[in-house]
Amino acid sequence: MAKLKIIVSPTSFFCTRIEWALKLKGLEYELTFEDWSKGKSELLLRSNPAHKKVPVLLDDGVVIAESKVILEYIDEKWKGGDLYPLLPQDPYERAQARFWAQFADDKCFIGTWGACRAEDAQEKEKAVEAALESFTFLEKQIKGKKFFAGDKIGYLDLVAGWISHWLGVLEEAGGLKILDAERFPSLHEWAQNFAEIPPIKECLPPRDMLVNYWTALLSRLRSSAPSKL
Amino acid sequence: MAEEVMLLDFWPSPFGMRVRIALREKGVDFDLREEDLSNKSPLLLEMNPVHKQIPVLVHSGKPVSESLVMVQYIDETWGGRSPLLPSDPYERARARFWADYVDKKVRLGRMVWLSTGEAQEAAKEEYIECLKVLEGELGDKAYFGGERFGYVDVSLIPFYSWFYSLEESANFSIAEECPKLVAWAERCMQRESVAKSLPDQYKVHNFLLELKKKLQAQ
């Protein structure tokens, strides 16, 4: 049987969330790395012509792109018995998980990234405020729970997982502070617990590599066109 | 029990239309509440405190927001009749991918009717390109999923009610650019759930003209 392969970039948390899901399911896989300095690979352009982005999952001839779509595919293809469930069974709980996953990506991450990119002091302050507002909603969701999915991690934990490792990097590269332990005690605690889980920890890229990458990226973006959000 | 399912909606919203179609495909009785977005109801603010936006589905008092999340919820809750997502995991992934593509790209339509001059030309080109990608994905199939009307069709068809207005504002013909896609749209319009859920295109056009005036005055 052909192995599972993921086309990834070494710094992208969208890719790491796929590794996490496969590890939780006990599935073996191969990584094929994009080297952005060489431009996008033939394989990537062929596999995801619509967006030309990582991650892409290659499963025995079948190709799937978009990280949240891939996560649901993995959960639906390998389910039942002893296999680790990512999404809950109940339709309402599933809707909640999907809603908050979209929110975590569209508001929390994009908000943080926008704040990193803002150069004008006033613009940055406004962007940080907006990001903090989004994180406040997320804090409410985790309050009183160990993980978003309950006692064990699930889909929403994987999607929000960037907060446990990449957020600190973005804060450093972007010169801002979002995840203050006093303001977001539950989220802060969740982040620490999440990052300690063995399959999660195994896949975390080295912090200094991430810092170098995001710092260089931000500086490259600043020296080109002004940020338009 | 009609009072168990409520939809907070706004008639020209393509996102609202998606949910109307899904509910009607399933034969679910629902109470449709029209919101005044310039004066949002306390119920809307309570049911969607995060985005304060329509559409919101309230099922036995519990809210679900985000149109595609809602459509999947409807498909999973009222499973039996007219399944919107296929059963095969790969086909499901493919459907979710393309519905997500629609979400990411067809919103470009807004730029087409809002902008003018060179900016509008550029927006129009990008919009047509996206429609062509979708047309390519449709191919010679009756619907995006094959023989059966499904999730991707639900995600895209509402924007058909906006086509006339976009064409008028940017002086182009979507039927000329993407004949297969328009043929698909007309096929979807044959379904009662779709015909009932999409507003008249001229009504949409007038609404967008008014909205444009208001936005330009600001």
UniProtKB/TrEMBL annotation, chain A:
Residues 90-227 form the GST C-terminal domain. Its EC number is 2.5.1.18. It is an enzyme of class 2 (transferase). Signal peptide: none annotated. Residues 2-82 form the GST N-terminal domain. It catalyses: RX + glutathione = an S-substituted glutathione + a halide anion + H(+). It holds the Pfam family GST_C. The keyword DNA-binding does not apply. It is found in: Cytoplasm, Cytosol. This is glutathione transferase. It comes from Rhodamnia argentea. The lineage of its organism: Eukaryota, Viridiplantae, Streptophyta, Embryophyta, Tracheophyta. The gene is LOC125312521.
From TrEMBL, chain B:
Pfam families: GST_C, GST_N. Its main location: cytoplasm. CDD domains: GST_C_Tau, GST_N_Tau. It catalyses: RX + glutathione = an S-substituted glutathione + a halide anion + H(+). Residues 88-215 form the GST C-terminal domain. Residues 3-82 form the GST N-terminal domain. Keywords: Detoxification, Transferase. PROSITE patterns: GST_CTER, GST_NTER. It is an enzyme of class 2 (transferase). Its EC number is 2.5.1.18. It is found in: Cytoplasm, Cytosol. Belongs to the GST superfamily. Tau family. This is glutathione transferase. It comes from Rhodamnia argentea. The gene is LOC115729614.
